[in-house]
Amino acid sequence: VASIAPRRACARSLLSETIAFGMWARSWKWGVPCAIALSVVLGPTLAKHDPSCAATRSGTDTAGLDSALFQVRTLASKIEVVGEGLDVDPESSSAIQSGDSIYLKSHVGHFVTVMADGRVHAEWNHRGEWEKLLIERADGAPGAISPGTAVFLTSWNLKRITVEGTAVHAKWDHRGEWQKLTIERNGGEGPILEGDEVFFKGWAGNYIDVNYIDTMHYMDANVTSPIGGVQARWSNRRDCHGLTIERVLATGVEQ
User: Which among 227, 246, 228, 230 is positioned nearest to 127, based on CA atoms?
Assistant: First the structure.
């Protein structure tokens, strides 16, 4: 979707192109419901944009459009899974699936957040658009996500969580090694479940962590990081690495 929707695209053209993508990607059988779903999601946002296709819109003005496209991507992933005729075991309905929209809550109750400039932090306890992340298997396969699976995390602005050295940001839409994160869990068999505490390991072997200096008395004295800062500093798992995974409510009404 990101490749056919440049940030300065005309809203009207974007709608037609997105529907065309849905028709092409899902075949006629699933293309029709996909197109309808995309139209419903994009409609309210497109109504707020000038149909004259002005090319001078700022990044802030297009934030709503990016958020709508994030929802489109989630819907498309869901429709693809249904279209392939996958059967979901009722007992595993809490399993996190590739294509789910999730929140990641830190050990002190704040959520991983992606700002408009791509900065990633966990300073707030909000469950809003900027906290939503799309989790996908890096191999492109549908279905449940299990410990040890490589995944991508895509933010509301269609950029992916990236580990660059020890820094963590969401400034690029790449699907490369720096965007691949291995999801892990402490013990237990079977897929990752909603409510599990999980850990994300970057390409260099370091785990994504959230810094709260008042709860990290063991932190190295020479390490400086803002409160709520998200980074990938250590290869051994600590309390600050654990993130509780929550699924976004299907109704879109957050608590």
Answer: 246
